[in-house]
Amino acid sequence: MASAPIDYQAIAQAGVAAWQRGDAAAARAAFDEVALAGRASPQLWLLLAQACEALSDLEASDQALDGVLTGDPRNPYALLMKGDHQATRGDDRAASSWYNMALSTAAQIPDLPQDLIARLDRAQAAIADASARFEAHLSGALAKSGIDPNAV
Q: Phi/psi of residue 77, each to 5°?
């Protein structure tokens, strides 16, 4: 007797319902099942990344974001999340690179959703903060070497 085919769309929908009710673990399990079966769209990969991030699993979230970017290389949400993960790890340079890619991509999208605009604004602020930290670091290194950073 043949077994019934697996309804991956129903599993994905159950994952979305779990996500909407705030159950990141159940959402992740459902999205993982679909992804492992090779049935994930870029949108499902993004949902998996968000569920993994909510569960503080940045490595799994990064892997899911790679799935998003494989199918949709200019997805601004995925690019921003990659930047956020690098910022969380303390890598300002990598975070700024991801944020700049997201900003460049978003500049080409008409009528951005409000939530994306807010995230892009936060990314711009993060880039400015990282630049200020780098400038302070350089000034400190110059001063430590006996060079007046204001004279340079």
A: -65, -45
> Tens-digit pLDDT profile for the chain (152 aa)?
567 789 999 999 999 999 999 999 999 999 999 999 999 999 999 999 999 999 999 999 999 999 999 999 999 999 999 999 999 999 999 999 999 999 999 999 999 999 999 999 999 999 999 989 888 888 888 878 888 767 65
Residue with tokens 């996500």: 19
Query: Which long-range CB contacts under 8 A does 131-134 form with residues at least 24 apart?
Result: 131/96, 133/92, 134/92
Single-letter code of the amino acid located at 91:
D
Please identify which residue in the block is written with the tokens 């799935």: 67
CB burial class (10 A; 0-12, 13-18, 19+) of residue 39? Answer: middle
